[in-house]
Amino acid sequence: MDGAIVDLLLAIAHHILVFAIAALLAAELALARPGLAKADLPALGRVDAVYGACAVLIILIGIGRVLFGLKGWEFYVYNPAFWLKMAAFGTVGLLSIAPTRAILRWRRASLAQVPELEVSAMRRWLKLEAGVFVLILVFAAAMARGVGM
């Protein structure tokens, strides 16, 4: 397959997954609301699982872009904006651990409704994730334009 086509397909997949992550994070915030009932937890768990799967796919496709993309690996490894983007992505990943663990804990517990304080704490984590996620987009735009090189 032509290198330009491979590069295009990898870029398309990468961008679709990034938009999917943003939508899934918004869905988690919408589902994790005050009054969260046990009956709502399977849907929240599915959204969180797909979020995690999309994150893994973003990493794999991102590696593909570095290795097989037209810009070449040097464009990425010598670009400070790339490393800032990676740091922001890693931070979002670390921030997502607490909500995932909470969902798993709530699904195992025998409760009719999730305590409001726990839902509130989860929402804080999700909002923090969303805030750092915005930095990924900022650094991606800077990286694509060679800022810092």
Automatic annotation (TrEMBL):
Pfam families registered for this protein in UniProt:
DUF2214
On the tree of life, the source organism's domain of life is: Bacteria
Keyword Transmembrane (UniProt) = yes
Entry keyword annotation includes Magnesium? no
Give TM segment ranges. 12-30, 50-70, 82-104, 125-144
- Keywords in alphabetical order, please: Membrane, Transmembrane, Transmembrane helix
What is the name attached to this protein's record? DUF2214 family protein
What organism, scientifically named, is this protein from? Pseudaminobacter soli (ex Zhang et al. 2022)
